[in-house]
């Protein structure tokens, strides 16, 4: 498929960026066509800007021709958020990957969007600091992508997700204007909070060109415990107890009965149980053990089947081995997986698990539930064989019922993956018409011609 | 001054609300004319809605007549944010003061905006929970007011300010539409983050009619320490050390040399020093003392003059007595006070203090600096005698120089009081034109006719 950009736009951006940074060949366009959703659509060109002024110039030029602009980090989104369905220009931040400044005294770092999450963590290590968002893709996803979808991870239960750990942004709006909001401070009552609005907007309101990130002191040590329960209700009651005492766990992960059964079938050394919690404490030599004891006390209660505590590195590794074994084990059930990161109030976790079990029985498909229990953010994995038309159809039919279940429990569609196109059409169920209209009005305020990542987040009118 | 509302609007709202809840008499209008800024302007009427539908109906009716709507909690704002300078209808939330639901298992509470901060804290106590924002006016300010100006307080250094402790909102836009954003969960990647956008918008984007607040487990015990330093630079270096270690202080308050000198003149038992820090740890029996030790270790360093530790209640009370004595002591210097809650990066606190000292000498006026050092959020108090025309003029001339100093240090105008009208004209210095334009576009998106609290936050075009 040939590029269909207006010739004057092509010429202007080729002149602005030079042949190394303005790519219109099919191969490079194809390399920027998909994300981890495995959805795919060819852009007309790929731009690799080196600074914010180039980003602003690209947006202004595209706006003049009403050509879509799709920001791209490392393409690890699972929702199609980075796929240019409407064609246009993919703006890759691969060359805006500088850590501009680490300010230990102000506990913040200033970065360009193309920095890899894992690279930032490495750079922060000598300062005894870290940036809390820890998606499982940390080694290959960018900060810009984390900002776009409000990425989380297990540590969010104590330290917050991306939105909670951003102090300021510089961004280019759909009008090609560079705006600056927030800054290297942690308290702000000065004007409208554009910073948190842009986080999670998936490149539909503005393109982030610089971020000031809130850092946390790296705890000196971690220790953990693994608790098995009779059923999901007993585990959920333990989650509530764990979250109600002052020692906030550093991680609090859940696995349902089908996840445990799967691990047992694959040879993991875990007891037969209805649910499992993995709980972690962090701290220093003085505080770690009392913290772990407080978590162990809270984990104990009705329905507890077994409790293992790991105070040092290798025992802790063994504890987490079961969690790490889960994703590979999932692939042994069936090659196809629909994985949604729904959110319910913590008190409704048992209802979610029960509802999903019923759905699994009805659809005759394995559905495995695990994830970030302390945030009520669970990953629901519908397993199927894509070469079996009936299973594929049943899996696809089960997905909307998962969303409907979550909404009926007072929850929401996504906790850390975002909406993209995958959940877009459910937005009308998650929000009422006036709220969606307010979101659309904000979209029009910052991107009046609708050129930024069109078709994402908000369903078409 | 008589009410100048259009007669059909007056009649419609009188019919909607009834005589008890639609007040047009001069006395009641005067009672809703001012806030703690001591600025004052008469509204044309005061509405006391009982539910969100009445709020929506009021806004729709006022919109039809292009009449301003000014939301009001308890009128404790210091910025004129609640003063109806353009007349119109003050919507008081005095009768929407229900605590709708406390959900300990989900660590959240659902409240109407008229609930007093202090009343909520009392209601949460039996559950072992609290809501972190702790402005000094907690006993008389409302949650709605806290939301409007993103109120903070000393605890924000560990627990965050209002914006960090809100999970969801129901609000009425300038079109009179009821929108719902967020909910009883702590992780959300579903659509645009209207929740955090509305916090701190001072009633200019929407009127909050219900809030879901994030609660924290109440720590079992507190302990503190008081550290005196040679000068502000030594204290600021200690602040950086305190914030860089994993034990986040529960409070971290600063006082400059003039505050200490003032306390000494007023008989407080404090040594002669250039700066003071009050640091608090919280935790339980096991964790409190190690935490306090970690803070004491961090407080020690070059320039430390004296360090007192208080591990129990009465000793701790004595420690904080100096802080509590400060506001009354301020009144002994001069009856007039311009108090601004500026923010600088923590690393620039010494520069702020030095700059203010120079300004104080130049203006021949006492300027006392104290406040929330861990957030870089310091209260700069310019003291003067209002009956002295020259002092008054010098105080008023010093204020813009404080703002200019703060901005030159890479800081911002307000950390917890908001903008109102008091700092509004400085917004053009704090933000560049494209960023202000983006804020104006968002204002227009949610309040297309500009009827919500007109003239606040954003300077007139």
From TrEMBL, chains A, B:
It holds the Pfam family FAD_binding_4. Keywords: FAD, Flavoprotein, Oxidoreductase. Residues 39-218 form the FAD-binding PCMH-type domain. It comes from the Bacteria. The keyword Oxidoreductase applies. The keyword Oxidoreductase applies. PROSITE patterns: FAD_PCMH (PS51387). Its cofactor is FAD. This is FAD-binding oxidoreductase. It comes from Pseudoxanthomonas kaohsiungensis. The lineage of its organism: Bacteria, Pseudomonadati, Pseudomonadota, Gammaproteobacteria, Lysobacterales.
């Amino acid at each position: 498929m040939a590029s269909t950009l207006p010739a004057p736009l092509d010429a202007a951006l080729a002149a602005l960026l030079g042949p190394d940074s303005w790519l219109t060949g099919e191969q490079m366009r194809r390399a920027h066509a998909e994300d981890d959703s495995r959805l795919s659509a060819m852009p007309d060109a790929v731009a690799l800007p080196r600074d914010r002024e180039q980003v602003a110039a690209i947006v202004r030029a595209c706006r003049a021709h009403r050509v879509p602009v799709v920001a791209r980090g490392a393409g690890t989104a699972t929702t199609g958020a980075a796929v240019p369905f409407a064609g246009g220009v993919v703006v890759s931040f691969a060359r805006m990957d500088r850590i501009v400044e680490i300010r230990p005294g102000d506990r913040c770092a200033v970065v360009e969007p193309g920095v890899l999450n894992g690279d930032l963590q490495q750079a922060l290590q000598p300062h005894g600091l870290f940036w809390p968002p820890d998606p499982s893709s940390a080694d290959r996803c960018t900060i810009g992508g984390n900002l776009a979808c409000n990425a989380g991870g297990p540590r969010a239960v104590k330290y917050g997700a991306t939105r909670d750990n951003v102090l300021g942004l510089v961004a280019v709006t759909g009008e090609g204007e560079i705006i600056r909001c927030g800054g290297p401070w942690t308290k702000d009552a000065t004007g409208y909070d554009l910073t948190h609005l842009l986080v999670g907007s998936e490149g539909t309101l503005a393109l982030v060109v610089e971020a000031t990130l809130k850092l946390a002191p790296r705890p000196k040590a971690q220790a953990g415990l693994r608790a098995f329960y009779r059923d999901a209700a007993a585990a959920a009651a333990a989650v509530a107890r764990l979250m109600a005492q002052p020692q906030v766990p550093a991680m609090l992960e859940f696995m349902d009965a089908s996840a445990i059964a799967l691990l047992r079938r694959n040879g993991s050394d875990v007891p037969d149980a209805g649910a499992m919690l993995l709980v972690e404490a962090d701290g220093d030599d003085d505080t770690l053990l009392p913290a772990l004891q407080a978590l162990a006390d809270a984990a104990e209660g009705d329905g507890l089947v077994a409790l293992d505590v790991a105070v040092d590195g290798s025992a802790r590794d063994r504890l987490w081995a079961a969690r790490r074994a889960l994703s590979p084990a999932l692939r042994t059930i069936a090659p196809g997986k629909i994985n949604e990161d729904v959110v319910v109030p913590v008190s409704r976790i048992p209802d979610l698990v029960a509802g999903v079990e019923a759905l699994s029985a009805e659809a005759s498909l394995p559905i495995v539930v695990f994830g970030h229990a302390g945030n009520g953010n669970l990953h629901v994995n519908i397993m199927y064989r894509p070469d079996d038309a009936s299973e594929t159809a049943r899996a696809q039919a089960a997905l909307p019922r998962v969303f409907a279940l979550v909404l009926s429990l007072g929850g929401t569609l996504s906790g850390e993956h975002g909406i993209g196109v995958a959940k877009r059409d459910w937005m009308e169920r998650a929000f009422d018409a006036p709220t969606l209209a307010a979101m659309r009005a904000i979209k029009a305020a910052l991107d009046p011609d609708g050129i930024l990542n069109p078709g994402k987040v908000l369903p078409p009118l």
